[in-house]
Amino acid sequence: xxxxxxxxxxxxxxxxxxxxxxxxxxxxxxxxxxxxxxxxxxxxxxxxxxxxxxxxxxxxxxxxxxxxxxxxxxxxxxxxxxxxxxxxxxxxxxxxxxxxxxxxxxxxxxxxxxxxxxxxxxxxxxxxxxxxxxxxxxxxxxxxxxxxxxxxxxxxxxxxxxxxxxxxxxxxxxxxxxxxxx
Length: 182
Description:
Blueprint: E1 11-13, H1 17-47, H2 49-78, E2 84-87, E3 90-93, E4 106-114, E5 119-127, H3 135-146, E6 152-154, H4 163-171
Antiparallel strand pairs: 1-2, 2-3, 4-5, 5-6
């Protein structure tokens, strides 16, 4: 049986150079802040060891987040464009996988979070286990599951597109999950 050719996507998103540069600069500043906090922790170790240990842990956590952020931006910049495409055959987010994820393998929902501490607008995904996900994203999915969140999100991070456009394109081909109580 011959495989039918893929149909054109209705939405594609490419990295926005300015947003990538600004995001990379933000993560680099976080690394610089981590170095400063670590230096402070070593200064405090002699006088107030408990405070030094607290600042050491804070510096290491900040540094780890900075490294992950810098590597994430650099990884995204090396991926072939488009980074995100949504069409009749499925969704492809190259940050998650190079494979086209068919609609049958996806469950999704849009979540708009607005609290006194945080605001966010994202499309959350559940993807069947057969889809090959990048190792770094599998690790992130594990962390998300540990805190009770869906494993994956289609992020607008450094792309020239908004969440409403992503959700709208996805909704053309697959209805979102409904949340309990909504």
